[in-house]
Specification:
643 residues; alpha/beta; Rossmann fold; GMP Synthetase, Chain A, domain 3; 2 domains; 31% helix; binds coenzyme A; binds adenosine monophosphate; Propionyl-CoA synthetase; propionate-CoA ligase activity; ACAS_N; metal-binding
Length: 643
């Protein structure tokens, strides 16, 4: 099929406002916007100013009003418990209204913040939608984060209420959430008025009613029985729908704000044009609602489009084996699957010849989309061979909320180039600049930036931190949003994303800050200084690796100190940090001005070519680092390139 991509991208370039005004017709507005784009509002302008709408209305009520209430909306499939439930749009309305009624009874209204700290259960999605229905702002915290991370988010968002569950289920272990929640609330400066706790059969949590704990199941059941109706509260298109905290360069996460209007318009556009999914079809994003992929493509986009979404609790491998994705695709007639490359690396490791794949009927599957980290060509080609459908790498970030570059199946696929995320999506004027801000020639590596304004659906700012947003993202390259990704655009316009330019790493598709891990390592009383870098890992893409210099006269056992530090990171950040490798070194390599040469250490560890930095203070330290890496089994490159 001939791709309409170029024509559609041109259409957007010719008249961005007309393009988005057309896309906005897919959304129900209580009051249509006065202006498609208002450059005078917000940090870089605002989309759909003056419009009034409601995201929950568009995800549920609108479909029911169109007579589609009995169609499948959400399929909950837990391999961890064996539960499977299918909700129609009508069923979902009942659930969401009941939760919204409970929230309203607890005093939650428009603009209030609600933290959702839950495993992958249907109730988590309903809770997000219930917040949206009331005009409240949700902030979902990934279950793999520890109490301190949760406390930081409660404080920063000044949450009025927390919705949580008694436990999450990880392979081989039940993760009690309630003790983490209680610790977080004890630590937090801001005390939420109440905590709604969903009791799961695998573990009942003792509730502290005197502290405002409420049994989620009982409270919601009471409203369900009463049949309480909760109307959708009209909100401004520019009002926040959610805050999603993501790793920044320090331990203080950045609260990405997504609005209601622009977010809906953009996501509805992507379902049809990027993913090629129609109303009534099943779309499955095998991610977690704690991440942006989960927000956009487990919850909002499929429901806005009137498709069915899958909420899957389990892992791609080991629950019970690497065939579980194929079982879910076959059983629920999934048309398009979206996941992180790491999931496919795990499946390939366990079933290299695809023996388990061929036992399933995957004839309904039309495409696989990968994102969250660079899709290595080997994994991508393997997936193509095994699934016999197009495999699309597309590039985006928590900040953008949807794909900056991709290959739009709905417009007709472009010829793919391995290693490239293909072309910029409409709305995104992607350029590559050198460090001084000058455009580079096609094919030259540089800083990937997006010309302002960002399209609808991208972040509008950081929560109550406009200046942080400006200084982190907009000031280095005036007139542009800095993606903090390095890469190139080739002579055909294909975008290649190679690496982050900051200290964010991608571990098993999870975005982590090595800066935050350094802050935790530095808390240990024996540590004088430290550097955490991401080193290449065959399964997870990257894993963190800590280099620690101990204080003088510390004579304790190094193995014991290392273990304490690993435990400390797990306790402070959470298991998701996957921080297991610690190397105790005498000194860290630095420039003469004292900057730690993390980039050079990383290249050495990954066995890549590296140059001796001209400003290095003492080159001998790199020899010591090389030795330690080799002792730890890294096939590192210890020899600098000749200048
Ligand atoms: N709640 C509590 N703990 C969690 C958790 C959660 N929601 N998610 C992960 N963890 C824990 C894991 O149990 C593990 O703990 P352990 O150290 O005790 O083993 C730790 O955090 C690291 O988890 P993870 O990085 O996910 O590694 P894994 O070895 O458990 O699984 C993969 C590896 C590749 C199978 C898995 O990471 C995966 O499915 N990745 C896909 C990621 C994804 O969908 N990303 C979203 C972007 S699209
Ligand atoms: P997150 O905010 O968790 O979605 O992580 C965003 C970061 O993941 C990006 O800035 C990239 O560094 C990386 N990333 C996501 N998708 C891709 C991709 N398709 N190719 C390369 N890197 C990617």
């Amino acid at each position: 099929m001939h791709s309409r991509y170029r024509a559609v991208y041109q259409q957007w370039q010719d008249n961005p406002e007309a393009f988005w005004a057309e896309a906005a017709k897919a959304v129900h507005w209580f009051t249509p916007p006065d202006r498609i784009f208002d450059p005078d509002q917000g940090v870089y302008g605002r989309w759909f100013a003056g419009g009034e709408t409601n995201t929950c209305y568009n995800c549920i009520d609108r479909h029911i009003a169109q007579g589609r209430g009995a169609e499948r909306a959400l399929i909950f499939d837990s391999v961890m418990t064996g539960e499977k439930r299918v909700y129609s749009y009508d069923d979902m309305l009942v659930e969401v209204q009941a939760i919204a009624a409970v929230l309203a009874n607890l005093g939650v209204g428009k603009g209030d913040r609600v933290i959702i700290y839950m495993p992958m259960v249907a109730e988590a999605v309903f809770s997000m939608l219930a917040c949206a229905r009331l005009g409240a702002i949700h902030s979902v915290v990934f279950g793999g984060f520890a109490a301190h991370e949760l406390a930081t988010r409660i404080d920063d968002s000044e949450a009025k209420l927390v919705i949580s569950a008694s436990c999450g289920l990880e392979p081989g272990r039940v993760v009690p959430y309630k003790p983490l929640l209680d610790q977080a609330i004890d630590m937090a400066r801001v005390k939420p008025q109440a905590c709604l706790v969903l009791q799961r059969d695998q573990l009942h949590a003792p509730l502290r009613y005197e502290h405002g704990d409420v049994d989620f199941g009982q409270a919601v059941e009471a409203e369900r029985v009463k049949g309480t109706q909760v109307p959708c509260v009209p909100v401004a298109a520019t009002d926040p729908l959610y805050i999603l905290y993501t790793s920044g360069t320090t331990g203080q996460p950045k609260g990405v704000i997504r609005d209601n209007g622009g977010h809906m318009v953009a996501l509805a556009w992507t379902m049809r044009n990027i993913y090629g999914v129609s109303p009534g079809e099943t779309f499955w994003a095998a991610s977690d609602i704690g991440w942006v992929v989960g927000h956009s493509y487990i919850v909002y986009a499929p429901l806005l489009a009137g498709s069915a979404t899958v909420v899957f609790e389990g892992k791609p491998v080991g629950t019970p084996d690497s065939s579980v994705f194929w079982r879910v695709i076959e059983e629920h007639d999934v048309k398009v699957l979206f996941t992180a490359p790491t999931a496919f690396r795990a499946i390939r490791r366990d079933d290299p010849d695809g023996d388990l794949i061929y036992r399933h009927d995957l004839s309904g599957l039309r495409a696989l989309f990968l994102a969250g980290e660079r899709a290595d060509p080997e994994t991508l080609k393997w997936a193509e061979r095994m699934l016999k459908v197009p495999v699309v790498d597309h590039w985006w970030q928590t900040e953008t909320g949807w794909a900056i570059a991709g290959n739009p199946a709905g417009l007709g696929l472009l010829p793919a180039k391995y290693g490239s995320a293909t072309m910029p999506m409409p709305g995104h004027a992607v350029e590559v600049l050198d460090d001084a801000g000058h455009p580079v020639a096609a094919g030259t590596l540089g800083n990937i930036v997006i010309r302002l304004p960002l399209p609808p659906g991208c972040l509008v700012s950081f929560w109550r931190a406009d200046q942080r947003f400006r200084s982190a993202c907009l000031e280095e390259f005036p007139g542009y949003y800095k993606t903090a990704d390095a890469g190139l655009v080739d002579e055909d316009g294909y975008v290649f994303v190679m690496a982050r330019t900051d200290d964010i790493i991608n571990c098993a598709g999870h975005r982590l800050s090595t800066g935050a891990m350094e802050e935790v390592c530095a808390m240990h009383p024996d540590v004088a200084e430290c550097a955490v870098i991401g080193v290449a890992d065959q399964l997870k893409g990257q894993i963190p690796c800590g280099f620690l210099v101990l204080k003088n006269r510390v004579e304790r056992d190094h193995a014991l100190i290392s273990k304490e530090i690993v435990d400390l990171v797990r306790q402070e950040i959470g298991p998701v940090a996957a921080f297991r490798t610690v190397m105790i070194v005498k000194r860290l390599p630095k420039t003469r001005s004292g900057k730690i040469l993390r980039g050079t250490m990383q290249k050495m560890a990954d066995g890549l070519p590296w140059k001796m930095p001209a400003t290095i203070d003492d080159p001998a330290i790199l020899d010591e680092i090389g030795e330690i890496l080799a002792d730890h089994g890294y096939s590192c490159n210890r020899q600098a390139l000749r200048a």
